[in-house]
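INFO  loader      accepted 1 record
INFO  loader      residues=67
INFO  predictor   begin
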Amino acid sequence: MKIAYIYDAVYPWVKGGAEKRIYEIGKRLSDKGHEVHWLCYKVVDDNSVIEKGVFLRSVREAEGIIC
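INFO  predictor   done
INFO  writer      dumping tokens
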């Protein structure tokens, strides 16, 4: 199954409780064979893989957001 999270902040760049929880859930779903995409503000130069099976997708530039 393909799963997408839409959230403005991404762990490990932002170390909040919700970000860590989404990250951990995504890793566990990936371990069970699901394809997980995390849609967020741009925090890295390109779309990348956070963990095996967890993909980071930037949808727009972060304007005025400090990460």
